[in-house]
User: Which sequence fits this backbone?
């Protein structure tokens, strides 16, 4: 086994996991929930249920990403809350995750790669996205047209990926998206500028860590949950331990 993975598991097993401070928040990043065991980013339904039950049992407040961004931008305490996000627009977001989130009354944001809408049975259709949006519990936001590394394509292409995906969702949902997710967490200062110019007020990365009062809303860190995330690691990702782990990673 990879020594880094052993170290990571030991770290999260042994380290204390103090509650998030009322000044901070943790944004979780999921992709898909299902039984495709060999797909790295897919969490099993049992594990996802266990994670949601843990959050509910610990009485974490789960708020929408829009609400967290509102608090951040108006300099209010972030509340020690947890935020749920799902990337790419997989169909199990509608079929499996949406019913569970309704059961817990947990709001969430789904970042959709718009070229993939209804593309195969693996992705949500426009009707499914609209139904989730209309429930008021789920916010549907863009994740570009074709999922490129935005810092590696031309400025014109990046601008088109950002603006057009926003326009397409606006057409489907009848409301204007305000939040964005960088594909692969790949962005440059220029990408951030393009996202701001397109009218977005916040954007999420894949950098691990906790959101705190000084965090740039256009560079929000997120903590990934995937098939390799053990339950100890999950508990660490909704506690201050994730910041210590992130600090350790940059230091090593
Ligand atoms: Zn993605």
Assistant:
């Amino acid at each position: 086994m990879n020594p880094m993975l052993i170290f990571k598991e030991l770290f999260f097993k042994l380290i204390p996991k103090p509650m998030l401070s009322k000044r901070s928040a943790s944004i979780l990043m999921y992709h898909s929930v299902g039984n495709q065991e060999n797909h790295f980013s897919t969490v099993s339904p049992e594990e996802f249920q266990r994670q949601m039950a843990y959050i509910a049992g610990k009485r974490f407040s789960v708020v929408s990403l829009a609400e967290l961004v509102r608090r951040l931008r108006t300099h209010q305490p972030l509340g020690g809350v947890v935020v749920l996000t799902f990337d790419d627009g997989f169909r199990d977001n509608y079929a499996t995750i949406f019913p569970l989130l309704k059961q817990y009354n947990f709001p969430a944001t789904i970042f959709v790669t718009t070229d993939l809408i209804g593309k195969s049975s693996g992705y949500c259709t426009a009707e499914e996205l609209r139904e989730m949006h209309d429930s008021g519990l789920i916010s549907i936001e863009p994740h570009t047209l074709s999922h490129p590394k935005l810092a590696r394509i031309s400025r014109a292409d990046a601008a088109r990926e950002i603006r057009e995906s926003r326009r397409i969702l606006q057409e489907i949902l009848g409301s204007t998206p305000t939040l964005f997710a960088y594909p692969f967490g790949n962005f440059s200062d220029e990408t951030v500028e393009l996202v701001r110019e397109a009218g977005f007020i916040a954007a999420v990365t894949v950098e691990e860590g906790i959101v705190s009062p000084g965090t740039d809303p256009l560079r929000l860190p997120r903590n990934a949950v995937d098939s390799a995330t053990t339950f100890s690691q999950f508990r660490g990702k909704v506690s201050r331990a994730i910041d210590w782990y992130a600090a350790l990673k940059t230091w090593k």
Strands lie at 25-30, 32-33, 42-43, 81-88, 108-112, 138-142, 179-181, 202-204, 223-224. The first helix runs from residue 3 to 14. The chain has one domain: 24-240. The pocket of zinc ion is lined by residues 87-88, 143, 147, 183 (CB under 6 Å).
